[in-house]
């Protein structure tokens, strides 16, 4: 156990914490707006309706990067609430700034490893949707173990989803796209909404990493599965 935390250290993480440069404006946005938009990590289940102050569908986003797509989706879907998680400080500052500038109140931000949040903070059946857009592809074979979309993590995520809820993944790395499809196809409680890869839905704008991938000549693959009613006792 790590003396400063109550969770054991995991050696294989899906990110490397870089000392990215935090601009003065990003730091100011955190100082000014964290109390309004931020949710601190704690190893206990939270009531998301209480956190957002209303009963509305909740969507988890893992790895929002600089937060521009998150902000745009929250603007396009005002009837949903978004719990957006990333570990990258400058992105957290940028998202605080964007939300304040646009006066959006349906996004809360966490700066923590989303794997811990899923394991320790989210109640079963609390999510209507999960967005994971352009997760780090970890190109080298010896790094594939760091990829977020692997069966053991998806097995932890799925109980958090309500029946009828969805998981939406996107990537610009074809071989990872194929892995994503294989992993999700391996869960009998999930149904693919498309025959293989899905069309990009209207709510998802181009993300920063997507634009970068396209400049490099990469394709883009969206994957959207729905959680079936899998419980013989009756599903809502
Ligand atoms: C390649 S970037 C994509 C960012 C954004 N979705 C986009 O498309 O522009 C992946 C992001 O996921 C974040 N990330 C990776 N693993 C994470 C984890 N376990 N918890 C939270 N964030 C994570 C990284 O910090 C990074 O910002």
UniProtKB/TrEMBL annotation:
PROSITE patterns: SAM_MT_TRMB (PS51625). It catalyses: guanosine(46) in tRNA + S-adenosyl-L-methionine = N(7)-methylguanosine(46) in tRNA + S-adenosyl-L-homocysteine. Catalyzes the formation of N(7)-methylguanine at position 46 (m7G46) in tRNA. It comes from the Bacteria. Keywords: Methyltransferase, S-adenosyl-L-methionine, Transferase, tRNA processing. The keyword Repeat does not apply. Pfam families: Methyltransf_4. The keyword Coiled coil does not apply. S-adenosyl-L-methionine binds at residues 61, 86, 113, 136. This is tRNA (guanine-N(7)-)-methyltransferase. Belongs to the class I-like SAM-binding methyltransferase superfamily. TrmB family. GO terms for molecular function: tRNA (guanine(46)-N7)-methyltransferase activity. Pathway: tRNA modification; N(7)-methylguanine-tRNA biosynthesis. Substrate binds at residues 140, 172, 207-210. Its EC number is 2.1.1.33.
């Amino acid at each position: 156990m790590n003396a400063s935390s109550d969770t054991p250290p995991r050696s294989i993480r899906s990110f490397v914490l870089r000392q990215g440069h935090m601009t003065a404006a990003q730091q100011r946005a955190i100082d000014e707006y964290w109390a309004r938009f931020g949710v601190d990590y704690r190893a206990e289940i939270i009531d998301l309706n209480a956190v957002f102050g209303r009963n509305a569908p909740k969507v988890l986003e893992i790895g929002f990067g600089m937060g521009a797509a998150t902000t745009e989706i929250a603007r396009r879907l005002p009837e949903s609430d978004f719990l957006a998680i990333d570990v990258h400080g400058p992105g957290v500052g940028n998202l605080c700034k964007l939300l304040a500038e646009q006066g959006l109140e349906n996004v809360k931000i966490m700066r923590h490893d989303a794997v811990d949040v899923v394991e320790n903070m989210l109640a079963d059946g609390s999510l209507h949707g999960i967005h994971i857009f352009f997760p780090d592809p970890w190109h080298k074979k010896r790094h594939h173990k760091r990829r977020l979309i692997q069966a053991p993590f998806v097995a932890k995520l799925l109980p958090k989803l309500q029946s009828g809820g969805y998981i939406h993944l996107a990537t610009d790395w074809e071989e990872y796209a194929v892995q994503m499809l294989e992993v999700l196809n391996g869960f009998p409680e999930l149904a693919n909404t498309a025959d293989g890869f899905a069309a990009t839905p209207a709510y998802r704008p181009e993300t920063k990493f997507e634009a970068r991938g396209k400049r490099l000549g990469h394709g883009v693959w969206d994957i959207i599965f729905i959680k079936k009613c899998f419980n013989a006792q009756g599903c809502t």
